[in-house]
Amino acid sequence: MFLLLAVILSGLLHGAEYEYLARVESVRKQNELTLLFAKKPEVAEYLIFHEKMLLGTVTIHTVSHDRHHGYYYRAWCRLFLAKEEYRILLRAGSRAGLVKKREPYKQDYSQHWYNEKRDYKKEITTEPDKREMVLVPDGKFIFGSNHGEEDESPEQTLYQKGFYIDRYEVSNSDYYRYMIETNGAPPVAWKGVKYPAGEGDFPVLVSWHQAASYAAWAKKRLPTEIEWEKAARGMKKGKKYTNIPEVYPWGSSFDPELCNGAPYWKKHGKKGQYSGIMSVTSFATKDRSPFGAVNMAGNVMEWTSSWYQPYKGNFKVKGEYGTQYRVIRGGTWFSEGRELRVTNRKFGGIPDLYRDNTAGFRCVRDIVSEKRSGN
């Protein structure tokens, strides 16, 4: 019986990429959970899944050897769900998959998060686009969220090589300069050969291919969504950097006064007055990431180079995943506070990536020769 169970569990583990399969014995109040295992768990903390859906995390407090219908270990655990409605999926008798949490944040971040390369300039101005860029240095950071939407999980520790990113979103006047020099086509949103009067410093709305073409002309590229998120988010600060990632570019609490989103206009908008997109320099002293990138929350969404696909360790199946849609980040002027979190993901490309002008963009450049003089 035990051999047969081991073979079954091994096959399921390989197919679903779980390290442990457990049966739920009971779920009690105060997030207490009892799980039954065929083999003894090795560590205390795991990500917990139900049918490839990430539910949250469990912390194992005690394990006893207690044979129970083919299971040999009973573990009392504390359960932390990403969403309270997931509780119904963990009924007595249901199965759960467990995966170890990789690279504990305290170990990764206590000393190594803010690891700036001192031999590179913090700010540069590039040619031919004549735009300001800010340095995002080498180092590890926490990517994704276990407390957001399903496509944002699981949180994971990633190392990102340093790069420069545009301080501001590409504006209408920036894009018009590119059009003149390349004889390019105007964005659909302009409804003509030039942007509307008085909107030169508004962010341009373009298709993904138009954004990529502009970036190539500027001798840059579109950011990956990993690069975009690192440039947008920070960490809580005190005497030492801690292991808690921020939720917004400015901190962990939403404030409608700090970015161009729907909550701002609900407070300040008046009937008959304009509510919508603002200058790329608006909120420059408020909606500013730790690295100096402005308007990473709200105003307009921004294209990235990444396909809309699940993160490693996310087993949720979505029909939109694949190589049809590109990730867009940052929320827009009509987004609610939850959608303005730096981990929130949307996708663009409907009907296709040549015609969808739902987003603006900013560019990145690899660090190659921008060393400090005299160092």
Structural write-up:
This protein is an alpha+beta fold and 375 residues long. The protein has 2 domains: 2-101, Elongation Factor Tu (Ef-tu), domain 3; 108-366, paralog of FGE (formylglycine-generating enzyme) (Alpha-Beta Complex), CATH 3.90.1580.10. The protein has 6 helices and 17 strands. The protein has helices at residues 2-16, 105-109, 172-182, 208-217, 225-232, 262-268; strands at residues 20-28, 32-37, 45-50, 53-68, 71-81, 95-100, 123-126, 131-136, 139-143, 156-160, 163-166, 235-237, 241-245, 302-307, 326-329, 345-348, 364-366. The strands form 5 sheets. The chain has a 6-stranded antiparallel beta barrel. Strands 7-8-11-17 form a 4-stranded antiparallel beta sheet. A 3-stranded antiparallel beta sheet has the order 14-15-16. Strand 7 and strand 8 form a beta hairpin. Mean pLDDT is 85; it is low at 1-16, 103-117 and 238-242.
Mean pLDDT: 85
Uncertain regions spanning at least 5 consecutive residues: 1-16, 103-117, 238-242
Q: Fill in the CATH topology of the largest domain.
A: paralog of FGE (formylglycine-generating enzyme)
Quaternary structure annotation:
single chain
CATH superfamily of the largest domain: paralog of FGE (formylglycine-generating enzyme)
Number of domain units: 2
What are the defining features of this structure?
Elongation Factor Tu (Ef-tu), domain 3; 2 domains; disordered N terminus; paralog of FGE (formylglycine-generating enzyme); 375 residues; four-stranded antiparallel β-sheet; single chain; six-stranded antiparallel beta barrel; alpha+beta
